[in-house]
């Protein structure tokens, strides 16, 4: 497909997608260490680097502004895209602040994108970049096995005991009838002996969590099991998670933990809030929305979750993907119910700036197709270029019968996803 903008009549930029046939090499090994952008699941997806365009945005209407900005960028660009698949042609990577009105959301159109879908691989180049930007470097996959030495952990905003006190306060507020559910998170700080190469972390996360979406945008790196919204044409989908159980290395105990989750009234209540919030905010934009009545159990190496896959058909006048994200985020998987009361309580008692943790992260293309997950099970690399520091995050849904110690243990099980990928 090729189209030339007539919006300005002066097309100066060009985006060219070139098919590369059926290749099997690992997309993540092609990334440079600096400015790595990634959205990969089970060997397919997109990786990008370099910046043809960039937008940092904060304040009311941040996502709608980003949507208009990318639409204009595409309208002013000559596109040559013979591949014509979701993710080919111009692509915008985004990492949205948990609170887009107060935090900064980052959007990047990469200079180079390598994509793979249904076994087909392509490369897209954007803007007036020299050949150097298009050169594909190779991070040796074995380098992911290299040690980064000792890791030292420190408390983030709150120590564990204080955080349990915050959970108790939330339980009290829920008991008092102020709200039904709130998600509370904590952070821990980690310092390594050697620089934290994002590619090492990405490769290790992708290998351990092939069913999760391994992502990187602006130093926020993780493998999330939760898909907030996928749009393909007029089809929209979401994988809603809430309700968690730990795993055990003892098979009988592990089976019992899984059965306990499947039968847990507390976890089903937590899950229901998340499903209802997504369905209520998405339904007005859909001609039909299929919400299964009972969740499935999703098993990951470190935890199990209650999971529901929601599917719908968008109405012809539905907003674009970024506009839809603005409508549905935050669901009660990361915020709470009622939404406004939960966000107020988070601001009042959580004691931490979430930044882009628990915000939407993913990509959208010029057709409006794209995928955004929730930035969970992630680390924000904080040490700058060649840095060896990171901030890790985990949160839990709190309902009326939550036990603070059990919630602390749940954050530890969730943090273990990134910790295991960092460690030797
Ligand atoms: C907020 C997080 O998880 C959410 C997603 C799945 C299960 C959750 C839970 O059971 O509490 C949380 O809602 C996190 O991992 O930081």
UniProtKB/TrEMBL annotation:
Residue ranges of domain Chorismate-utilising enzyme C-terminal in the record: 162-414
Recorded superkingdom: Bacteria
Protein name as annotated: isochorismate synthase
Its EC number(s): 5.4.4.2
Alphabetical list of InterPro entries matching this protein: ADC_synthase, Chorismate_C, IsoChor_synthase
Key words, A-Z: Isomerase
Family under the similarity heading: Belongs to the isochorismate synthase family.
Reactions catalysed, as given in the entry: chorismate = isochorismate
One Gene Ontology molecular-function label: isochorismate synthase activity
């Amino acid at each position: 497909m090729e189209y030339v903008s007539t919006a300005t009549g002066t097309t100066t930029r060009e985006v060219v997608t070139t098919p590369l046939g059926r290749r099997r090499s690992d997309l993540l090994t092609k990334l440079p260490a600096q400015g790595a952008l990634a959205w990969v699941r089970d060997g397919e997806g997109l990786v990008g680097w370099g910046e043809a365009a960039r937008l940092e945005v904060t304040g009311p209407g941040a996502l709608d502004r980003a949507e208009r900005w990318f639409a204009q960028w595409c309208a002013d660009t000559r596109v040559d895209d013979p591949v014509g698949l979701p993710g080919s042609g111009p692509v915008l990577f985004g990492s949205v602040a948990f609170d887009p009105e107060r935090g900064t959301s980052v959007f990047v159109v990469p200079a180079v994108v390598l994509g793979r879908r249904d076994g087909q691989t392509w490369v897209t180049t954007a803007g007036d970049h020299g050949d150097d930007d298009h050169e594909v470097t190779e991070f040796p996959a074995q380098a992911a096995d290299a040690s980064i030495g000792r890791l030292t952990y420190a408390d983030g905003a709150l120590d564990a005991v204080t955080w349990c006190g915050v959970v108790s306060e939330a339980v009290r507020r829920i008991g008092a009838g102020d709200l039904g559910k709130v998600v509370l998170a904590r952070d821990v700080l980690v310092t390594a002996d050697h620089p934290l190469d994002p590619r090492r972390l990405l490769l290790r996360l992708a290998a351990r969590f092939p069913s999760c979406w391994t992502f990187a945008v602006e130093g926020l790196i993780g493998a999330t099991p939760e898909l907030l919204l996928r749009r393909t044409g007029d089809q929209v989908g979401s994988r809603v998670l809430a309700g968690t159980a730990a795993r055990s290395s003892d098979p009988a105990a592990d089976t019992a933990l899984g059965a306990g989750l499947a039968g847990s009234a507390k976890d089903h209540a937590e899950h229901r809030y998340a499903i209802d919030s997504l369905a209520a905010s998405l339904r007005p934009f859909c001609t039909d929305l299929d919400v299964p009545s009972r969740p499935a159990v999703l098993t990951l190496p470190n935890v199990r979750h209650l999971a529901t896959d929601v599917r719908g058909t968008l109405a012809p006048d539905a907003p674009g993907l970024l506009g839809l994200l603005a409508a549905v985020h935050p669901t009660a998987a990361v915020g709470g119910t009622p939404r406004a009361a939960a966000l107020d309580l988070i601001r009042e008692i959580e004691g931490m700036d979430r930044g882009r943790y628990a915000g939407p992260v993913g990509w959208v293309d010029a057709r409006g197709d794209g995928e955004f997950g929730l930035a969970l099970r992630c680390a924000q690399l904080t040490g700058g270029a060649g840095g060896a520091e990171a901030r890790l995050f985990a949160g839990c849904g709190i309902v009326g019968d939550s036990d603070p110690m059990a919630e602390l243990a749940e954050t530890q099980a969730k943090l273990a996803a990134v910790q295991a990928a960092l460690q030797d």
